[in-house]
């Protein structure tokens, strides 16, 4: 009989990228959550654990923990399956989109066969992976596939199709020369032979709905409420009725069944050994030297003594906005909006906010202890004059809508609830606060959607009365977070093709004299725009306004918006000799300006662009495909101007990038040249020079004093392509950098060694 494989069926093309997609570097780090452990495997006293966005390794004897994520080797996020062979030191990671990573001591190989498959168009999520020797059986929505870990390619596949309908393999395992799979219609098996791909030749060992399976010396599988010890064709129930089986694991000495609330261990003859409760729900569990370790949903790895082990990180990956403070403190909100920025984003976890105190991540017990309350936190800020005082906005239809005040208790490392402000509105439909911002005198302002039906407002916190005073702008129905600049607040309006500037006349507690200035379609927004989403003010005082249909610039914004002829204009760049509008028809989610006046721009579905100060040059373009970004829709960007570190926030987690621009002034900082030396065989890119003045005159000379390159750098850094004035690469040797700032009052020197 003809041997069928995935390839011969035309489903997959057996394409693999062997370290070809190098998307991580030392400049990137992750701020992922490692709480939700999906799978674990022991390797000689070390536990290898898979979580939603990464792998971590915990050495039991030393307590050492290391991690592997998209920031330092993996190629994707949203892990859905994992297994590891301690004998060969090879692991296999499966993702929700169907791609896989093969982890070996030599590196990581990206496998993209399933995502690019055209013959099967339903869910391509990797449901489960089980490794036996050098082979793995991969469970997907279409059935099972055999993957050769040595060759890093797929072999035979069995498509579980009856009457034109695919049946998923929930999990599968290899034992001997046979594959066993659990499905919603039965516990099935087949020899790995020529008829393996033919579903009609598979044997149903036991009818029913089964979810989990594992094997080593013995085989065990389970339904939701029962687990079975399988031997010589006979399925014997283990002596327990379960509430809801989460996983079954077989290792050398034990069978481990993870139930909803308890972990049951049996010997390999199916005789019960122990029952352990870790005080919280687990996804999986294993035993090492007679001790139970649980893979929890919220606490990483947990042992029987309630000790937890995991890399530090936020409570969940789900993130929306971030605010930075001194001493490396971070506040992350986890809410969101949809439906033209009207409806609260559907988010079952409702996690509230996360806090990093400079040393560790802290999650307020307030959100854990109030499971009945609804939280959709769009923003959280700390009082600049008292960082322990924290306010957050809760954008919901629930009774918990409004603004909440908390107090951080450093001794308990927790937050105490202080007060709640419903903003004085008569209905839960109204008063949905969005963003919070302090002015330069530490007065707190809030932007509010639906102060009255069809209008939005601005509120100011009156500390004397401990209440918020609300100003109805009589404009729009929705707002974004306020940006403070030059004694005014600048507010995008996401449901109308308009923009608002709010002048509170430096009298925050007197809302009667405030003035609202607006821009609308007649001021130059695109005809197909339905809203403004983001804004940033640069060093020149220009407002960069992101809309859902492109980018607009309001030059000299403070005076322009007060005048009768304010006009926003697009940036026009040259493409193939023709002028073209930058980001035309793109939804601009966020804009951030760094210390060198360069712009970071997040485009919905398009990743992040790093632009020159005037927007004419794209310096970098990061996407999910070419960088550790977890998604191409980044909801927030923040730059730490002192360090140059850039934070990228998304619903799939947070990553950071160490930028080259930090604390730029008119004088030089700590000038650094890298890489140095430049060895052509190891590096073929541009040499970066950072720590420069805001405007720097650069001359590069060879050892004989001949100037081979000159330039004017702006924004605190420069990249040299190692070409001379004629556009040809310079010869090997030592080159001297002679640099002065704009007025010649400061200078700096450096050397570069070039080896061709």
Taking strands numbered 1, 2, ... along the chain, how are they ordered across the largest sheet? 1-10-9-8-7
CATH topology of the domain at 29-309: Methylamine Dehydrogenase, Chain H
The named CATH superfamily of the domain at 29-309: YVTN repeat-like/Quinoprotein amine dehydrogenase
What is the arithmetic mean of pLDDT? 92
Shape: globular
What profile does the largest beta sheet have? 5 strands, antiparallel
Distance between the termini: 58 Å
Strand-pairing-aware structural class: mainly beta
**Count of alpha/pi helices:** 2
Extended strand count: 70
Strand content: over 45%
Domain PorZ N-terminal beta-propeller: 49-194
Organism: Chryseobacterium defluvii
Protein name: PorZ N-terminal beta-propeller domain-containing protein
Structural features, described:
This protein is mainly β and 756 residues long. Among the domains are: 29-309, 7 Propeller (Methylamine Dehydrogenase, Chain H); 672-754, Immunoglobulin-like. The chain has two helices and 70 strands. A five-stranded antiparallel sheet has the order 1-10-9-8-7, with no helix packed on it. The two termini are 58 Å apart. Residues 1-20 have low confidence and may be disordered.
């Amino acid at each position: 009989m003809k041997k069928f494989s995935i390839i011969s069926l035309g489903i997959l093309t057996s394409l693999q990228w062997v370290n070809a997609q190098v998307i991580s570097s030392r400049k990137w780090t992750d701020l992922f959550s490692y709480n939700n452990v999906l799978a674990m495997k022991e390797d000689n006293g070390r536990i290898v654990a898979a979580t939603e966005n990464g792998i971590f390794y915990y050495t039991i004897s030393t307590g050492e923990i290391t991690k592997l994520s998209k920031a330092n080797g993996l190629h994707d996020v949203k892990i859905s399956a994992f297994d590891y062979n301690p004998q060969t030191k090879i692991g296999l990671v499966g993702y929700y989109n169907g791609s896989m990573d093969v982890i070996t001591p030599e590196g990581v190989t990206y496998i993209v066969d399933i995502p690019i498959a055209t013959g099967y168009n339903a869910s391509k999520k990797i449901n489960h992976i089980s490794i036996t020797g050098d082979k793995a059986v991969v469970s997907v929505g279409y059935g099972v596939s055999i993957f050769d870990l040595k060759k890093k390619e797929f072999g035979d596949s069995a498509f579980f199709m009856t009457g034109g309908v695919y049946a998923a393999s929930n999990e599968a395992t290899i034992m001997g020369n046979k594959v066993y799979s659990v499905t919603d219609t039965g516990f099935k098996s087949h020899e790995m032979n020529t008829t393996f791909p033919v579903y009609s030749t598979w044997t149903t060992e036991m009818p029913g709905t089964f979810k989990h399976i594992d094997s080593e010396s013995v085989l065990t599988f389970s339904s939701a409420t029962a687990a079975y010890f399988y031997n010589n064709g006979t399925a014997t129930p283990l002596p327990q009725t379960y509430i809801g089986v989460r996983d079954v694991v077989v290792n050398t000495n034990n069978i481990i069944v993870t139930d909803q609330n308890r972990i049951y261990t049996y010997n390999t003859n199916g005789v019960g050994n122990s029952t352990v409760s870790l005080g919280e729900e687990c996804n999986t569990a294993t035993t090492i030297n007679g001790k139970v370790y649980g893979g929890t949903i919220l606490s990483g790895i947990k042992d029987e003594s309630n000790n937890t082990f995991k890399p530090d990180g936020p409570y969940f990956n789900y993130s929306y906005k971030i605010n930075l403070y001194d001493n490396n403190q971070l506040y992350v909100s986890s809410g969101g909006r949809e439906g033209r920025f009207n409806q609260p984003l559907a988010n079952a976890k409702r996690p509230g906010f996360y806090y990093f105190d400079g040393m560790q991540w802290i999650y307020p017990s307030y959100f854990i202890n109030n499971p009945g309350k609804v939280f959709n936190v769009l923003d959280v800020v700390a009082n600049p004059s008292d960082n322990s005082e924290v306010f957050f906005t809760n954008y919901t239809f629930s009774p918990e809508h409004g603004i909440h005040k908390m107090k951080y208790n450093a001794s308990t490392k927790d937050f105490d609830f202080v007060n709640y402000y419903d903003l004085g509105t008569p209905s839960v439909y109204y008063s949905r606060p969005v963003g919070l911002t302090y002015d330069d005198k530490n007065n707190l302002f809030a932007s509010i959607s639906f102060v009255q039906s069809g209008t939005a407002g601005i509120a100011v916190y009156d500390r004397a009365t401990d209440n918020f005073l609300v100003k109805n702008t009589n404009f729009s129905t929705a707002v974004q977070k306020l940006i403070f600049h030059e004694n005014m607040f600048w507010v995008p309006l996401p449901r109308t093709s308009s923009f608002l500037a709010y002048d509170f006349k430096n009298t925050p507690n007197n809302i009667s004299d405030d003035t609202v200035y607006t821009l609308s379609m007649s001021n130059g927004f695109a005809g197909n725009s339905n809203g403004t989403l983001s804004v940033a003010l640069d060093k020149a005082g220009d407002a960069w306004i992101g809309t859902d249909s492109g980018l607009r610039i309001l030059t000299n914004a403070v005076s322009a918006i007060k005048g009768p002829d304010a006009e926003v204009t697009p940036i026009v760049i040259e493409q193939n000799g023709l002028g073209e509008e930058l980001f035309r028809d793109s939804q601009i989610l966020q804009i951030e300006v760094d210390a060198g006046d360069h712009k970071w721009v997040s485009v919905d579905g398009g990743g992040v662009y790093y632009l020159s100060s005037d927007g004419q040059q794209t310096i970098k373009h990061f996407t999910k495909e070419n960088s550790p970004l977890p998604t191409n829709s980044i909801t927030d960007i923040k730059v730490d101007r002192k360090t140059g570190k850039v934070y990228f926030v998304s619903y799939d987690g947070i990553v950071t990038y160490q930028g080259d621009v930090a604390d730029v002034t008119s004088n030089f900082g700590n000038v650094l040249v890298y890489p140095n030396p430049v060895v052509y065989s190891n590096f073929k890119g541009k040499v970066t020079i950072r720590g420069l003045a805001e405007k720097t005159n650069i001359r590069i000379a060879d050892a004989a004093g001949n100037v081979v390159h000159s330039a004017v750098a702006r924004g605190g850094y420069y990249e040299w392509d190692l070409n001379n004035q004629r556009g040809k690469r310079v010869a090997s040797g030592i080159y001297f950098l002679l640099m002065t700032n704009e007025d010649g009052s400061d200078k700096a020197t450096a050397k570069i060694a070039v080896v061709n």
